[in-house]
Amino acid sequence: MSAASTEPRYTNRLAGETSPYLLQHAHNPVDWYPWGPEALAKAKAEDKPIFLSIGYAACHWCHVMERESFEDEATAADLRDGFVAIKVDREERPDLDQVYMTAVQAMTGSGGWPMSVFLTPEGKPFYGGTYFPNDARHGSPSFRDVLAGVRRAWQGDRAAVESSGAHLVEELVRHARADTTAGTAPLPDRPQLDAAVAALETTFDAARGGWGRAPKFPQSMTIEFLLRRSAGSDGWPGADARALAMALRTLDAMADGGIHDQLGGGFHRYATDAAWLVPHFEQMLYDNAQLARVYLHAWQLTGAKRYRDVARGTLDYMARELRTGDGAFAASQDADTEGEEGGTFTWTAAAVRDALDSDELRRLVSAAYGVTEAGNWEGKTILSRVPSDAHLAVEFELSEADVAARLEEARGILLARRAERPQPARDDKALAAWNGLAIGAFADAAAALSASEDPDDREAARSYRAIAVEAANAILDGLRGPGRRLKRSWKDGRASGDGVLEDYSHLADGLLALYEATFEDRWFVTARELMDTVLERFADPAAGFFDTADDHETLVTRPKDIQDNALPSGNAMATVVLLRLAAIAGEERYRAAAEAALSQVSGLLGRYPSAFGQWLVALDFALGAPLEVAIVGRPEDPHTAALLEVARAGFRPRQVVAVASEETALRNAVPLLHDRSMVEGRPTAFICLNFACRLPVTEPEALRAQLDAPAGAA
Fold first, then answer.
1. Mean of the pLDDT values across residues 381-402?
2. What CATH class is the domain 3-178?
3. Distance (Å, rounded) from C-alpha 527 to C-alpha 484?
4. SS3 state of residue 352
């Protein structure tokens, strides 16, 4: 075959983009434009409606619609003749995605990706949906029929189309305020936390973990809230047994299920069934970052090593598969491998037999992970943990330690064999918000594992700390520009898109965690600067924050999304970070802004907890007295390290920690350290709670006693 015959027949304007999703469409016969002034001007000049298609690289049905419709020359001709076609990566432009997804949901009652929406040349939406098949089926019109119908309406009933668009924009503006009580309600109170736990009980699947029926998503924020309620708090009642039971049952079920990669660690996007067995195989950075953190916190709370193992396995997956060449984290891996969903991850009994040379090991692995000749999904097996190590020990007449060791050996062999298969494509763009979540996960793990008695945990802590620092440097070097402003996305040496609220808030959260893992004040300083920019540029005068800055591109409405979705909402995360800043910086303006933001959701948290998980975390922090720990001593001093190890042990989610030497404490950027000095020349810990400080201590046991003492104790 000649070299010329391998060249693409078509190349459109998307070829100049960096987004892998846009580049996937760069050789469609469709005359695609990226979102921008050129496309919008063309629509106005030619008086054509806009066909806006929004998706993302790991989206299975986005790939299907591309193959069926966007690679079809007749469809491309229809689009070229009647429309200006614009393709958007939702991960690069969450502002556009939020505005137009809200419109599609208002028009159809549901949403999803690929999103297909038709706009006037001014950007007003008037018709939309999600995936349209290339042929009419199951009550859905074909995509070409949709194009023809929209074109007829545009040409024959223009006034009605434009009226519909104008009306919908009015609805979008109202929607931005409809679900909030900004400016009219006080700070939510503690009964809403209790009501949220009770509401979660009503939809909890006690047999299989999680909430509701299939499909089931890993609701990390909800579980994090339940763990915090389980932990109790200074001056609050102790562990909430209901919350703990729901959290741990769900964590166990997900860890055992096919949604969890039993060989390589990490989690797939969601389970298509109620038992967590059959995943949608895409793997997202944001899911894994949040899940790593929540499993880590479950280990800190319970001491159960299986949660630590899942957390470390997830972090190791992220480090192995998602790190980019400059040390940041890639966005995702596809659900498909060479057009087959899950092709990399599923097994046949024959493939397992071929990989393992011991018959006993084959039988043990097959029993442990449910491998059968018939399979459990489309003739293949999705690996999941079926019986426990204890059960297998009895069945195979082995000790539990032997079972664990042999399964670990087998997983290594199978993972190496799996690595020889074609691998899912990776979306290499590094997003500020998602990297903030990853930095926070690695930093939290570095701090928590450094307090472990296990030498392997301590070694992992050092590695995770270095990974978090490298990622933070890469993101800030690539995406932070003049005036403390962030860009959204980094790929191939190019930054693109203006940062939105979640970029600032999620990255600030990760940097605060990195400060507490390293005690390098530059991370605290940068986190504070990011949140000061949020207060200056994103604030809604009523309360809370818009999703875009005050100098962002003008859209048909300025988006403000308060609900948590797969990621924490920018508003909710900003509230959490502001509360932590208030505790560590001692500035009332941060807490006042956080409490005003919380007023937006007063009355909603107890009724709709699964939609407001991060808000519940914020409220839990706001209502529980923050525990402020300042340690003065050289970080490398063993006595300082002993105090810090006590402060890091266990699960204290409402605690902030700062450390500096006596020589640098007074001029340190962290106000919590100011006016502190060592007692009798020894490293010293200071604890403040409820605006009252306890006596400084120099011994680890004395510090432990103070940390465990109830509020109000001396």
1. 96
2. alpha beta
3. 11
4. helix
CATH for 190-339+426-623 (1.50.10.10, 3.40.50.300, 3.40.630.30, 2.60.120.10): 1.50.10.10
Residue 106 contacts residue 168 (beta carbons within 8 Å) = yes
User: Which tens digit of pLDDT belongs to each residue from 365-378?
Assistant: 999 999 999 999 99
- In CATH terms, the fold of domain 627-708 is Glutaredoxin (3.40.30)
Domains 3-178 and 190-339+426-623 share a fold: no
> In terms of DSSP H, where are the helices of 179-284?
190-203, 220-231, 241-256
- Specify the pTM: 0.94
Six-digit token string for 26: 């760069």
Residues 581, 648: Cα–Cα separation, whole Å: 19
Please state, in angstroms and as integers, the Cα–Cα distance from residue 205 to each residue in 213, 275, 470, 589, following that order: 8, 10, 40, 42
| Distant-in-sequence, close-in-space partners of 599: CB < 8 Å, separation ≥ 6 | 181, 182, 183, 184, 185, 186, 187, 188, 543
The span from the CA of 61 to the CA of 341, in Å, is: 11
Domain boundaries, the chain: 3-178, 190-339+426-623, 345-418, 627-708
pLDDT digits (tens, 9 = 90+) for 350-367: 999 999 999 999 999 999
Q: What is the arithmetic mean of pLDDT over 42-53?
A: 97
Tell me the mean pLDDT in the region 287-306: 97
Give the pLDDT band (50/70/90) at residue 235.
very low
Segment 432-471, tens digit of pLDDT = 999 999 999 999 999 999 999 999 999 999 999 999 999 9
Say how many Å lie between the first and final Cα of the chain, rounded: 83
Sheet of 684-689, strand order? 655-660, 627-632, 684-689, 692-693
